[in-house]
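As a warm-up, study this chain.
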Amino acid sequence: MAPAAAKRGSSHLWVHLTLLLGAVIMVAPFLWMISTSLKSYAESMQVPPTWIPTEWHTDNYARVLDTVNFLQYYLNTLVMTIGRTAGQLVLCSLAAYAFACMRFPGKSVIFISMLSVLMIPSQVILIPSYAIMRTLNWLDTFYVLIVPGIFSAFGTFLLRQFFMSLPRELEEAAKLDGCSYFGIFRWVYLPLSRSALISLAIFTILASWNDLQWPLIMTSEDEMRVLSIGISAFQGQHATDYPLLMAAAVMATIPIIVIFVFFQRYFIEGIAMSGIKG
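Now compare it with the structure written out below.
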């Protein structure tokens, strides 16, 4: 038993060392971002680079707020992210329930047609989308930032897979008790889908918070810009102020890290139970 236990302990050690190495590789860019945000411009360009700043320039964060309208960008991004996330949680869950539990003509054809949208690059429909938004007079408004993103084929597919994993006996019992389809959705499926809904919310928050292409094309007024565009303002054609760029990136990244830390358990559970695994 002793040699077997020693061999098993050795294999566990290598697994933990590999995981530790992977963690260091993943965390290193974030630590470098924080380090650079506290350096002077000259030190950020120094060769060889240094991990720990010789002088701590915490005023870089205040300079970010003075250089661009960062708080307005933050507010716009927050409104856009909340609007898109709330919309997807409502619309995608309703569509997923219909595709998973209801029977209606052409259900499979409609579902496959919806999934085919995932194979179309967003750049292909960018010009027609711009023309539609201009016709609706939605350019430089929150409508253009929120409404086109309140539904996604991926979110519908994710929740449909989760709903299909739930026991059908629950639905049959609810029908015997006189529940309508909406009642079953509201009182049976939604309470059991917290992890899947949180997973979809995290996916949507990440996509909305980091979205650059759509807000860049659809907005031109500084009052409607979002964080991704504000951060790119520190990257010039001939020179880049890396300390300010990294300081802005740190302030933009912290909310996403906090959300993931608090909800990672539900996120992993939702992905595992929906059957979407890498």
